[in-house]
Backbone:
């Protein structure tokens, strides 16, 4: 709008901008919230990556040092799903799973699975609980054949929760089913069933029958001390045949990774 004054000067007025209708104001707030949310999410994700890298490195280093493994040893660390940032604030992780393939245990090679709870980011502090599962397949269990039987074996099969060993004794094929259990740090193999010349019998029947002298070496299993290969802070608590593997379990509580270096013993001593 143009206005003329008495002096002949023309003045032009500019209309003030209209205010944003209230119904559109919430759109601006949504945009602001979306931007802030995106920034927070980005920060959490990036922070979580840093925490995972640090925590994974701490756990791996602690396990390698504690178990006296070579630096080149493959160690898979699973820190679980979800964001670790909030756990890291407390100084510990809820749970960590570690898998170490191709670990030497005496004459055999097995896979070591660790499940650790309440894992501190400070390796000098103790964890809550630690469960170690050692897995041996048939090929590696065969290396312990001398503990399973006193006779030269021709076969070894892990199935149906037992270890079944076979031998040829004076031309007679004999198989024995062995159930594993644990006692004072060792795995004990107890004969549960025998088949001689294709005829099934109980252990008691074989011992009391004419085949006793022939089958006696097959029933002469020995305890296998596994505590000597595991950290002293862990107690051997179980041994089962799971599928095609013998799984030996050891557990411990309130132990530090740094204290896992020394190995255990079996009492009374067994070989």
Residues:
């Amino acid at each position: 709008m143009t206005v003329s004054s008495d002096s002949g000067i023309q003045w032009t007025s500019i209309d003030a901008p209209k205010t944003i209708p209230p119904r559109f104001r919430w759109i601006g707030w949504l945009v602001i919230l979306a931007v802030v949310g995106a920034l927070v999410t980005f920060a959490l994700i990036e922070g979580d990556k840093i925490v995972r890298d640090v925590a994974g490195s701490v756990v791996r280093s602690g396990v390698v040092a504690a178990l006296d493994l070579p630096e080149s040893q493959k160690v898979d660390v699973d820190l679980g799903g979800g964001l670790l940032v909030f756990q890291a604030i407390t100084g510990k992780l809820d749970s960590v799973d570690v898998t170490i393939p191709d670990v030497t245990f005496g004459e055999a090679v097995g896979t070591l699975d660790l499940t650790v709870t309440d894992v501190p980011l400070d390796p000098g502090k103790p964890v809550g609980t630690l469960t170690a599962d050692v897995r041996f397949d048939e090929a590696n269990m065969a290396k312990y054949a001398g503990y399973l039987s006193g006779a030269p074996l021709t076969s070894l099969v892990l199935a149906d929760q037992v270890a079944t060993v076979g031998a040829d004794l004076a031309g007679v094929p004999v198989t024995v089913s062995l159930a594993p259990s644990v006692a004072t740090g060792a795995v004990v193999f107890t004969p549960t069933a025998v088949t001689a010349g294709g005829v099934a019998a109980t252990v008691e029947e074989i011992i009391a029958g004419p085949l006793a002298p022939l089958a006696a070496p097959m029933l002469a299993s020995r305890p296998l001390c596994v505590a000597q290969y595991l950290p002293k802070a862990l107690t051997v608590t179980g041994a089962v045949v799971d599928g095609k593997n013998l799984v030996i379990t050891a557990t411990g509580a309130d132990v530090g990774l740094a204290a896992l270096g020394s190995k255990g013993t079996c009492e009374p001593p067994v070989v």
The radius of gyration is 34 Å. The mean pLDDT is 79. The first strand starts at residue 2 and ends at 4. Residues 53-135+229-260 form one domain.
